[in-house]
Design a protein that fits this description.
It is a single chain. With about 550 residues, this protein is of the alpha+beta class. It has three domains: about 240 residues, Bira Bifunctional Protein, Domain 2 (BirA Bifunctional Protein, domain 2), CATH 3.30.930.10; about 120 residues, YbaK/aminoacyl-tRNA synthetase-associated domain (YbaK protein, Alpha-Beta Complex); about 100 residues, Rossmann fold, CATH 3.40.50. Strands 3, 7, 8, 9, 10, 11, 12, 21 and 24 form a nine-stranded mixed beta sheet that branches. A hairpin with a 5-residue loop joins strand 18 and strand 19. The two termini are about 20 Å apart. The structure holds one RNA strand of 78 nucleotides.
Length: about 550
RNA sequence: CGGGGCGUAGCGCAGCCUGGUAAGCGCACCUGCCUUGGGAGCAGGGGGUCGGUGGUUCAAAUCCACUCGCCCCGACCA
């Protein structure tokens, strides 16, 4: 491909709206353009990267026997109504009517449609198992699109769905995907973790996410370097640091105006971990008092899993429900449901005395109050692993893929049943598995760049090699460049030749920005000695090679580390 | 949806507080000369209803109201 004929609008300056590294670089290097909030156009370079990622995905999906198909973007409402998600999902779903007034939506995922297809076509256990996948546009009216290509309203997604007879079959399909995902992300050159995740509204029990570490991410994961425990902090368990031991006499103390743990802690000279935080939430089934150790914070997802949707209680609600104002609430003597974090099971604590301006020392769980025990706190850096006790670390990550065991959540309402050997009708057991190719690309840029630009992993770079004839006015340079371009292309490499009539500096800057892994630089000075320079974008190392040996050397480089 | 910020030429910005003499700079773009190993130089040139609407005023990029759009933090994220 000739640079002069390819649409590569590079930018010297960063558009002001771009914050995330991947957003800035993809914009500057001419890979993407923004159409509106959360809507991005992939320019030729960006599209090439996406296609290379998709090719890797297709190869690995084929490797586990998955079959590619293509569904529609527009869905009739009835199918979504059957599973209840038409109502469950709020404003995030784009909805519209066709000309006859029929309700439709734009597909944000395809569990329903896949199950619908299966319900019509799969009759017998002999038809199972199946794995169907597509690489299809998804639309979600995101509350807050952000970070360039990482969170958009319209995005490409590889989504596959497995159909099995039973849990055992599902387990196998799940493992196949797990393996394929590891191969895909490795081939794409990403650093990533597989972590336990919250199945959430997808239903089902087991779910994992594939997470690429990056400060531009939106999730945090907890990792144990010792036993390998890895989980999204939404559900990560952890042991809080031991609290200071020492008995406290059971007594009420006057704490005028001291409400927060911080204030009372300083006032009484005791560490926050000796306190019980009492927080009132209002769930669908009424108020719930949540108890946490003073040095911990509530992981709302964990509470939600126990009591469903909830909100914090207002000031008046606190007084009306508990008879005391916030700041002096204690765990004892209330009629509301009380759920306490497990970290409070042992020890002697200080808490509110249920009386304005007073706190209570010497509180013992099981003696002075009772509660349901649950894991409620957010796992923090420095907490210990609940499995092996080693310290946990927390990392910020981009979710690049996920795998869910769905079970029969979609097959039952959509009547996707098959007949087993005994002629018994059984629901198909499903799994669903996603990968966001654009996030893979963004994560690659986030993880692999320097001051000058992108450094593409070889397997997903828009081109394998770029040829830079520095002086287009020099016939010998141009001729050699063309010759090398042809020879490299014949070797099966994707080559971009910068044939623009630009100064050397411009070509160097653009080449580094765009991030093609190997640069072949043809300058007059070296050429007079019959030498051509080969530069590795990542290491920045240059080597001078005899002009006859360039092709062989470049092919080695490209294939060597691919 | 709550909080914050920003809309002036393709991009990055100044001007706004203190209304008039304020449509300006750098880059990019076009023409010519020159130059060719890290975003050159000189000369000439094109391009902007100052996001939109309404108001205040003799006069609005500048003040006021409304509105649209974009970004960031949070909530949400099937």
């Amino acid at each position: 491909m000739r640079f002069s004929r390819m649409f590569i609008p590079t930018l010297k300056e960063t558009p002001s709206e771009a914050e995330a590294v991947s957003h800035r670089l993809l914009l500057r290097a001419g890979f993407i353009r923004q159409l509106a909030s959360g809507l991005y156009i992939f320019l030729p370079l960006g599209y090439r990267v996406m296609e290379r990622i998709n090719t890797i995905i297709r190869e690995e999906m084929a490797g586990i026997g998955a079959q590619e198909l293509l569904m529609t973007v527009l869905h009739p409402a009835e199918i979504w109504q059957k599973t209840g998600r038409w109502e469950e999902i709020g404003e995030e779903m784009f909805r519209l009517k066709d000309r006859t007034g029929r309700h439709m939506c734009l597909g944000m995922t395809h569990e329903e449609i896949m199950a619908w297809l299966a319900s019509r076509e799969i009759r017998s256990y002999r038809d199972l198992p199946q794995i169907w996948y597509q690489i299809q546009q998804k639309l979600r009216d995101e509350a807050r699109p952000k970070s360039g290509i990482i969170r958009t309203r319209e995005f490409l997604m590889k989504d596959s769905y497995s159909f099995d007879r039973d849990e055992e079959g599902l387990e196998q399909s799940y493992r196949l995907h797990e393996g394929a995902y590891h191969r895909i992300f490795n081939r794409c050159g990403l650093r990533f973790y597989q972590v336990e995740s919250d199945p959430g509204m997808m239903g089902g029990a087991t779910a994992h996410e594939f997470m690429a570490p990056s400060p531009a991410g939106e999730d945090d994961i907890a990792l144990c370097g010792s036993c390998g425990y890895a989980a999204n902090v939404e559900l990560a368990r952890s042991l809080s640091p031991e609290t200071e031991a020492g008995d406290l006499p059971y007594e009420e103390v006057h704490t005028p105006g001291k409400r927060t743990v911080q204030e009372v802690s300083e006032f009484l000279g005791l560490p926050p971990s000796r306190f019980i935080k009492s927080l009132l939430y209002i769930g669908d089934d009424g108020p719930v008092l949540v108890l946490l150790r003073g040095d911990q914070d509530l992981q709302e997802r964990k509470l939600q899993r126990i009591i469903g949707p909830f909100r914090t209680a207002g000031k008046e609600e606190v007084v009306a429900t508990l008879g005391v104002e916030a700041g002096f609430i204690g765990p004892a003597g209330h009629k509301v449901r009380i759920i306490a974090d497990e970290a409070l099971k042992e020890g002697v604590y200080v808490s509110g005395a249920n009386r304005a301006d007073y706190h209570l020392k010497g509180l013992r769980p099981g003696v002075h109050f009772d509660a349901e025990w649950a894991d409620l706190h957010i796992a923090k850096e420095g907490d210990r692993c609940h499995r092996c006790g080693a310290p946990l670390r927390i990392e910020r990550v981009i979710e690049i893929g996920n795998i869910f065991k769905l079970g029969t959540k979609y097959s039952v309402p959509l009547r996707a049943y098959y007949l087993d050997e005994n002629g018994v009708e059984r629901p198909i057991v499903m799994g669903s598995y996603g990968i966001g190719p654009a996030r893979v690309a963004a994560a690659a840029v986030e993880q692999s760049h320097d001051q000058d630009g992108i450094i593409w992993p070889r397997a997903i770079a828009p081109f394998d090699v770029t040829v830079l004839p520095l002086n287009m006015a020099d016939t010998e340079t141009v001729e050699l460049a063309d010759e090398l371009y042809r020879a490299l292309t014949e070797k099966g490499l994707e080559v971009l030749i910068d044939d623009r009539d630009e100064r050397a500096g411009v070509k160097f800057k653009d080449a580094d920005l765009i991030g093609i892994p190997t640069q072949v630089i043809i300058g007059q000075k070296s050429l007079r000695q019959g030498l051509v320079e080969i530069k590795d974008r990542r290491s920045r190392q240059r080597e001078l090679v005899k002009r006859e040996e360039v092709v062989e050397r470049v092919v080695d480089m490209v294939q060597g580390s691919a």
